[in-house]
Design a protein that fits this description.
The protein has 91 residues and is α+β, with helices and mostly antiparallel strands. The protein has a domain at 25-84. It has helices spanning 10-13, 44-53, 58-69; strands at 27-31, 39-43, 80-82. A hairpin with a 7-residue loop joins strand 1 and strand 2 (39-43). Helix 2 (44-53) crosses helix 3. The longest helix has 12 residues, at 58-69. It is globular. The N and C termini lie far apart (32 Å). The model is unreliable at 1-9 (pLDDT under 50).
Length: 91
Amino acid sequence: MAKLTKGPLFMDDFPELLLADGFDKAFIGVGSRAGDDHIAVYDLEKCVNILVDSGMTHEEAAEYIDYNVLGAYMGPRTPLFLDPMDIDDVR
């Protein structure tokens, strides 16, 4: 398995990653699953907050993310947008 590093070597470790433009501050890591390519993982609420900080309302930002980001399939390496929650939230 590739070693995670910080700095300029990162993309050399994961050259196949597709990154979401404008959401670098919401990037939280790299996901993997047996037999699949590595995928970039973003914190969904941080993505919304980035758009709010750029001038959108929370509702506008959530709608933009839903339609333009979550709705954009770019193949098997499409980034994952994680909505962090506790196990009790899904039980």
